[in-house]
Amino acid sequence: MTKHFVIIGGGPAGNTAATYAARFGAKVTMIERDLIGGAAHLRDCVPSKAMIATGSALGTINDAQRMGLTDVSATLDFDALRQRIALIGERLERSTTSLLESQGVKLLHGTGRLVGPRQVVVETEEGSLEIDADVVLLATGSRPRIPEWAQIDGERILTTRDAYPPRTLPEHLVVIGSGVTGVEFVHMFKSFGSEVTLIVSRQQVLPLKDPEVAAALEADFLARGVTLLKGAKARSGVATADGVTIECTDGRVVTGSHALLAIGSIPNTDNLGLSDVGVELIDGYVKIDHNCQSSVPHVYAAGDISGKLPLSSVASLQGRKIAEHAMGLHSGPHRHIDYEKAASAIFTEPEIADVGLAEVDAFAMGRKIRVTKVPFSANAKALIEDDARGFVKIISDPATGVVLGGAIVGRHAAELISVIALAVSAGLRVADLHESLFVHPSMAEALTDAAE
Ligand SMILES: Cc1cc2nc3c(=O)[nH]c(=O)nc-3n(C[C@H](O)[C@H](O)[C@H](O)COP(=O)(O)OP(=O)(O)OC[C@H]3O[C@@H](n4cnc5c(N)ncnc54)[C@H](O)[C@@H]3O)c2cc1C
User: pTM score, two decimals?
Assistant: First the structure.
């Protein structure tokens, strides 16, 4: 009998699961209340990277003299940027919708919730609709976390979702939160020409990252004139007629033209009827097992609500694995996702990317590792491209030579890390990397050098 797969949420987790489940022969209905493609994806991940790319182009043009060019300059056109972001979003939404439709996925525009273990209700503009499901996938994503003290007005005090781009270019942006999202916004607005102050709650930006990596980013921020307010936690934020005043718990006060909150996200698990049908939550996230099954086995959860790594790539892979598992394909333990092997990147300048075991974690565990590090300053392509900042670090097992992890700071780090990610997931040895013949001149040559 054909299985009916009902998916709530059309982000990377939902739409990947839908495509695969349909290919594997399921009848698939996907419910989305906003954009097909995902809120976090189309409202955060993609627009933020599009704005960073514009800032980077601006920087390249305005620094063109260093490449031997004269009389080249550019200024930012905020309206054109807004249109560019809208256009990218529309194109992605259209291509995702066509892919789903081509696989026969039924798309319902509305808000879904469980009303029984196998019953989903959808509130649409035309009224409500009850659907019976054999398998349910919860893939409703997350939204920015807003502390009680923050009075978000979308004008002066912004969440990340008010910033693509804001109505006007902030003269002086105060960014609250120095995790991945916060530092990307610092870089983005600094490259647009804003003055930027970053409130850093600890003594290091990117508190969860390798200190050497974080130090490289801090050095770049300081060189570009970003003010770092370390060991400071915001406790109140007030919008005034012409700016904002942020007060920290230690009494320090920062003023600016705008403030942006980047202090994490919370899962969209409220109003889904989960407790009524026995789906267990941990701190608001759906509790899942290795197969992404919740405490109700035919109800799966993926993406940001699953409490695993909040990355688009992870959400998509979970979606595919769920389709395979629910359709009875590839269900052995070897198919479980190893979240430790997920590569991630921070789109600052220089870019930062890492995968697998971090040096700092190995030391904390008392695990013996071998660390090899090569700077880009000796790499021909980095010099050709006029950006030789950063380094490649490879972490391997001293006994076997197997690559356990790595970190890259530098131009194209987000692309280059794929090589180390492949080595980590395929269990390759440093010797395998060292013996590989990469293109010359290329930044990737630093990887073979670091694998010596
Ligand atoms: C600023 C920012 C930048 C980021 N950059 C990156 C990056 O560079 N790389 C990366 O890998 N990740 C990035 N991420 C994270 C990434 O966007 C998320 O991890 C990813 O989108 C999660 O996918 P998802 O499918 O779980 O949820 P989403 O993409 O959020 O999709 C969930 C969907 O469910 C819908 N929905 C919610 N409730 C209901 C309901 N009851 N009924 C119907 N529909 C519902 C929502 O409208 C939404 O469309 C970034 C996040 C932020 C905040």
Answer: 0.95
